Amino acid sequence: MQRPELYGLGPDALEEGTQLIPYQEHWLEANTAAAFANMARAAEDAGLALAICSGYRSFERQLQIWNAKATGRRPLLDALSRPVNPEGLSHARLVELILLWSALPGASRHHWGTDIDLFDANAISRQALRLSSDEYLPQGPCGPLHAWLQANAGRFGFYFPYQAGLSGVSPEPWHLSYFPVASGWLADYDPKALYLILERAELALKPQVLARLHDLVDEYVFRIAPAPTAMP
């Protein structure tokens, strides 16, 4: 398989030869880490403590998240972040609900180290953070951070890939992508390779996923908000 790291299967982050480097308590793609450090310094001047709550995520970690949601060990949410009772739902509906907020293993942008989930550590602790949309509304603890990122993230090469009406994944005002690198990774992404990976994985709802994989990849991997074409 060419470029297994596209699917979270590359060398372990602790091994040599990976595109990832340690950054604070996380692993990021090297150019992403440098750009984020510059952006964090600028945010600090505005009184914001730009902090990462999720960076690189492996295939195995994403598989754990998927299986936990598919089997009721983690909560399911609808598009408005309201809890959903999984009892009585069809397998197809379960797949759709999971994909609103969580990627298929092998299909997460977090596999690339170019995408990060952010919060304002001056306004809310990591322990209290729920990564819910209301926390990033103007009156929420991360509202000023979100407004600042909307105005300034593009200067550092970052943008929001998950936006209302523009992406299959629900809007995530905490999720930024470093588009100078991530755009190239997306262009190289191969749904056929993902099929072979998932076929061998211990994946909950596997028959339902594989039967619709082409359409799921189109909707939840390739349908994202358009990335800026160049750095400003």
Residue-averaged pLDDT: 94
Helix and strand pattern: EEHEHEEHEHEEHHHH
Radius of gyration: 17 Å
In percent, how much strand structure appears in the residues?
5-15%
Helical segment count = 8
Molecular shape: globular
> How many domain regions?
1
| Alpha carbon gap, first and last residue | 35 Å
- CATH fold name, please? Muramoyl-pentapeptide Carboxypeptidase, domain 2
Kindly report the spatial arrangement of strands forming the biggest sheet. Answer: 3-6-8-7
- Model regions low in confidence, pLDDT < 50 over at least 5 residues: none
Structural class: alpha+beta
* The level-1 CATH class: Alpha Beta
| CATH architecture type | 2-Layer Sandwich
Percent helix range: 25-40%
Essential attributes:
single chain, 232 residues, alpha+beta, Muramoyl-pentapeptide Carboxypeptidase, domain 2, four-stranded antiparallel β-sheet, two-stranded antiparallel sheet, 8 helices, globular, VanY-like_core_dom, peptidase activity, M15 family metallopeptidase
